[in-house]
Each structure stands twice: as structure tokens, then as C-alpha cells.
Specification:
17 helices, Pyrimidine Nucleoside Phosphorylase, Chain A, domain 2, alpha/beta, Aldehyde Oxidoreductase, domain 3, 14 strands, globular, 441 residues, 7-stranded mixed beta sheet, binds uracil, Transferase, Pyrimidine Nucleoside Phosphorylase, Chain A, domain 3
């Protein structure tokens, strides 16, 4: 096999065989295929696509490129959830503890922030002492004892994705359905859970901007998961508006705790209840309706707060921050962003809100940048809200005052204020299972 020939084949719309794909991934991980050839292949896939068989072969080759998690010492059904990435998306911190409080274990491998989107590991690491680098035995012990643990993609797990993702990030080849599907599902298969619920975001703050593309991505991933013997489904959820009101690491942990106490924003609560119900259902706890009421009851009881605190403690963090979120250090500087006109918020460029938060220090501009955990944005007005000129749209927070000017500009560009109230937004658009796609009205 010559990599040149494979690039040529894909460039002309050819279909790669299983063997060609696995040799290509092996060669790339071994350093025998250089980045420039793999970049050309990624771009060829971006334009020519891959059929379902090719995407499945790519996923398996990537999943097997390194160590696979061994969860055999964890008792019972293990569930996993994965979001395709969004702004203000702190659902793992809510859904995981809720699910665990109902007796279903979650062994979760999470990622860091990417571009305009936040990452669960960065959010968790805003809690003093907490570590997400945990060895396999301790990880399984925590899942058995607490019901949930969250770790990073450790050591030699899915090295093919680590290399490919870094390459795609700098070659404008992230937003490709076969490449996202194989990246996410390779990690899910290597992580070893029995059931997987995918939260596929759609809209201005998602990698997939249209509902059509989001459903296609969800179908692709559910097909791969099902083929691999997992109980797998996907929810298509809204990312035209940031989820909840908090964007930024410790701000999002605080909002997650409020939500676990039943005091969270309505949109975030609704999405978390849907995801929790789907996870319980995938774990065989009952039909969706029954699982939804279990999730609601768990939320009302506040049981998830203790589970989250127990997980923080087990991972070396100071759990008193969960019981008393006032302990999180506030950012030294804060600045209000004021509405420039009267009217209704008729559009939000959610990606722009995520970029503004990253510009305040909540995200990384380069891979090696450190994070300002207290930086971010608290939204006071969102899509559909009526505003008067001078109302506070949001508060910006940062440890570096000089970052406000540019971030504020970017944030304001993300709001469109019009004369009439817009159509009400939706939270959940569709549910995709191996049996088909249900579109919610
Ligand atoms: N999240 C991933 O893990 N991979 C992608 O390609 C996109 C989002």
C-alpha cells in the first residue's frame, strides 16, 4: 500500500477497503505516514465523504490503535454519554451524578475544550485538587464505590484520534461527518461501556450547523455503536443558544450544582432530564416515560449533589466546593455588556459567545495555553428575551482586565436585536435509535 495511491483513490471518490484503512491508521500511528499525507487524506475525505462501511472500518482501526479500557471489574451495566461539543454544555456534571444516584454506573472518558467549545475535564479541574489522570484500577474502584468517575483520554488510549484530531484542528477538517463520527465512536468503543447515549448538538454553536447534518451524524454514530454490540441512541439537542446561563469553567460547575439542587435554568434542566432518561432507558431501567419520572424525582431529591461531591473527593478534589460553591474564587475583574438598542433578541451566534469566553481566558487559543478557571460569561438575556437599551445582556469575567475590550466586541457581535419577538426556540429536535429517527414537534 502506498499512501499516495490511497489519497489519489479517495480524491477521485473511490471507496477504501477495510485493509487499506487499517494499514493507513497503523502506519500513521507508527509515524511511517507523515502529517502532510494524512492532511491530504483528511481533506479528500472532507470533500468526498466515506460510506458507512468505510466509516465503521476507520472507527474500529482507530479504537484498536492503542489500549482498550477494561471495565470488567465494574459491577452491573456501565453507561457512557458523549456530547459533540457546545457552549455552556455542562450536562455531564449533572447527568452523570443523577444517573449514578439511580444506581446506573457511568465510567466516563471526557475531553478538554476545543476551539469555541468547552470541555468537561477543564471544568472539573477548576475544583481545587481534583485530578482527571487516574489509573485504570482506581478508576474502576471509584465507579464501583461512587457510581461515577470522569477521566481524560489517558496514556495510550486511541492514539490515532489524538494525532488525527490535532491535525484536523489545524487543517480545517473538523466538521466532516465521517471524521467526527469515527473520532467520537472510536473513543466510546475503547472506553468499554455497555450503553452509549450521544448528545448531538445542532445550530450556530455546534460543529453541525443544520438539523439535517446533525441527524446524519447521529445516524452514522448510532449505526457504528449498534454494529459494535452497544445499546446506542442519540438525542439531537439545541445549540443555537448557549446551554444554561454560565459559560466558563468554575462558573459552569456552580451552575451544574444549582441544577442538581433543582434550581438550574429551565433549558439546561430540560436537556439533562432527557439525557438522564435516555441513559436509564439504555441501561434497561424501564421505558422512556418511566425513566423520565425517575430522573425528575432524583432531581427534586437533590441526591445528585452528594454523588458529585463524593466523586470530587474520590478524585482528590475538595468536595466542600460542591456543598458551598461560594468558595470558588471570583474573577478579579468583571464588566457588564449593555444592550445597544431596544427590542427582542432574535438571534445568537453561539459560536461567537464561546469564542468571547475563550478570549477572556476560559479557553485555549493554543493547545499548550493554561486556563483561567474563573473567567467566562454569565448571560442575563438570551434568545427571545425583550431588552431595553442599556439593560445588562451579560457579565464578563476575567483575571486580565486588558482582555475585556476585544472579548466584549466579539460578544456583542453575537447578538441580533430585532423589533419583533422571534419563534420560540426548541430544546430537543429528535431522537435517533437503531430502529429509526423520531422527530419531535
Ligand atoms: N468531538 C470529538 O471527540 N471529535 C470530533 O471530531 C468532534 C467533536
Amino acid at each position: 500500500m502506498r499512501m499516495y495511491d490511497l489519497i489519489e483513490k479517495k480524491k477521485r471518490g473511490g471507496v477504501l477497503t477495510d485493509q487499506e484503512i487499517s494499514q493507513m491508521i497503523e502506519g500513521y500511528v507508527a509515524g511511517e505516514i507523515p502529517d502532510y499525507q494524512m492532511s491530504a487524506m483528511m481533506m479528500a475525505v472532507y470533500f468526498q465523504g466515506m460510506d458507512q462501511k468505510e466509516t465503521a472500518a476507520l472507527t474500529l482501526a482507530m479504537a484498536r490503535s492503542g489500549d482498550m479500557a477494561d471495565l470488567s471489574s465494574v459491577r452491573g451495566i456501565k453507561v457512557d454519554k458523549h456530547s459533540t461539543g457546545g457552549v455552556g454544555d455542562k450536562t455531564t456534571l449533572i447527568v452523570g451524578p443523577l444517573t449514578a444516584s439511580l444506581g446506573v454506573k457511568m465510567a466516563k472518558m471526557s475531553g478538554r475544550g476545543l476551539g469555541h467549545t468547552g470541555g468537561t475535564l477543564d471544568k472539573l479541574e477548576s475544583i481545587p485538587g481534583l485530578s482527571t489522570s487516574i489509573d485504570g484500577d482506581r478508576f474502576c474502584r471509584i465507579v464501583n464505590e461512587v457510581g461515577i468517575a470522569v477521566i481524560g483520554q489517558s496514556g495510550n488510549m486511541v492514539p490515532a484520534d489524538k494525532k488525527l484530531y490535532a491535525l484536523r484542528d489545524v487543517t480545517a477538517t473538523v466538521d466532516s461527518i465521517p471524521l467526527i463520527a469515527s473520532s467520537i465512536m472510536s473513543k466510546k468503543l475503547a472506553a468499554g461501556s455497555d450503553a452509549i447515549v450521544l448528545d448531538v448538538k445542532t445550530g450556530s454553536g455546534a460543529f453541525m450547523k443544520t438539523l439535517e447534518d446533525s441527524i446524519a451524524l447521529a445516524r452514522e454514530m448510532v449505526a457504528i455503536g449498534t454494529e459494535a454490540g452497544k445499546n446506542c441512541c442519540a438525542l439531537i439537542t439545541d445549540m443555537n443558544v448557549p446551554l444554561g446561563n454560565a459559560i466558563g469553567n468554575s462558573l459552569e460547575v456552580i451552575e451544574a450544582v444549582q441544577t442538581l439542587k433543582g434550581e438550574g435554568p429551565e433549558d439546561l434542566t430540560e436537556v439533562c432530564l432527557h439525557l438522564t432518561a435516555s441513559l436509564l432507558c439504555a441501561a434497561g431501567k424501564g421505558d422512556l416515560e418511566a425513566c423520565r419520572s425517575m430522573a425528575e424525582q432524583a432531581l427534586q431529591s437533590g441526591a445528585g449533589v452528594k454523588v458529585l461531591a463524593d466523586m470530587v473527593k474520590a478524585q482528590g478534589g475538595d468536595e466542600s466546593y460542591i456543598y458551598d460553591t461560594d468558595q470558588f474564587a471570583a474573577a478579579p475583574f468583571a464588566r457588564p455588556v449593555l444592550a445597544p438598542a431596544d427590542g427582542y433578541i432574535t438571534h445568537m451566534d453561539t459560536e461567537g459567545c464561546g469564542i468571547a469566553s475563550a478570549m477572556l481566558g476560559a479557553g485555549r487559543v493554543r493547545k499548550e495555553d493554561s486556563i483561567d478557571y474563573s473567567a467566562g460569561i454569565l448571560l442575563h438575556k438570551k434568545y427571545g428575551d425583550r431588552v431595553r437599551k442599556g439593560d445588562i445582556l451579560a457579565m464578563l469575567y476575567s483575571s486580565r482586565e486588558e482582555l475585556f475590550e476585544e472579548a466584549e466586541k466579539r460578544f456583542l457581535q453575537s447578538y441580533v436585536i430585532g423589533d419583533r419577538p422571534p419563534q420560540p426556540g426548541k430544546r430537543i429536535y429528535a431522537r435517533v435509535t437503531s430502529g429509526g429517527t423520531e422527530i419531535y414537534s
